[in-house]
Amino acid sequence: MESAPAGTVAEQGITPAELRLAARNHAMPLEALRYDLTPAGLHYLLIHYDIPSVDAESFRLEVGGAVERPMTVSLGELREREGVAEPITFECAGNGRALLEPRPVSQPWLTEAVGTAEWGGTPLAPLLEDAGMSESAVDVLFTALDSGIEGGVAQTYERALPVKAATDALLAYDMNGAPLPPQHGFPLRLVVPGWYGMQNVKWLTRITVLEEPYTGFQNAVAYRMYGIDGEPGEPVTRMLPRSLTVPPGVPDFMTRTRHLAPGRTTLSGKAWSGQGPIASVQVSTDGGETWAEADLGAELGPHAWRGWTHDWDAPVGAHVISSRATDAAGNTQPLEPPWNLKGYANNAVEQIPVTVAPPS
Q1: Given this model, what pLDDT does residue 218 score?
Q2: How many Cα atoms are found within 13 Å in the side-chain-facing hemisphere of 159?
Q3: CATH number of the domain within which 317 lies
Q4: Can you give the pTM of this predicted structure?
């Protein structure tokens, strides 16, 4: 690409606008990949606008639109409905954005915008059934309590799902067995297994059944795969496969380059996909020149990441560790990042520089 398109930067230096976003939102430290369930304070976080102040006692969820029986439901009434809890992996659609060249200007994620929590709540489908959803329904719109300006458009955050995908969703009020923290959507959020994080609408306050496709900003403009021509392409939907490695050894403070003593070590990590179960993980210790099969751990759940391990006899020298996932649908991580104007769905294989040397 000869020049940086509008909305991107060619230099590596972070802009003040990106720095403000990075200060508000945070990634999951890669060493937290050791946990099957990510502690709430370590789970990645992206907040589009402001965290609203919500009183749980007065909170109400409205269900309307193309339904026979519009409903207004309190948090207590939601907790009285059928309850389920499931480990589900979230990943931000912009994960990997900062590794693209030229770099799209937005939240500057590297690879750590991910986390897996046990989300507890009540299934959405029975609630829609109780409301008498129209047989002509096409989309279900989920409206949040946070609002702001994006793309020059004043708006409340809201996104729609096709009816079939919406009926798989969960109305979550718990995270890892405790009420949702404010930053994760207290008192209620949407959880849609397998989809990128923008669909897991926080601070959910209204559900509207639509008989026409939704054409609002977050669906039609924001989360689309744009090419260099600036025209919106396919919508961003389900997560592509990705594997990440727990960084071995210890880090250099500034560069995060890893330092490891020579000898036998067990590499480990997590892999996930919204396209299907993880079928295999391969590991490279030479920057992708050669690959070896990793051992997969037990499945945590149908919508959660899967652990893996690989033994490595680490020789003295400089190495680059990578892992790549393949899912049951046959999707495999690419070695090179797929560029797009907004920096979405970059699931290119990770590269972790490691220096192996005897302790000094």
Answers
A1: 96
A2: 26
A3: 2.60.40.650
A4: 0.94
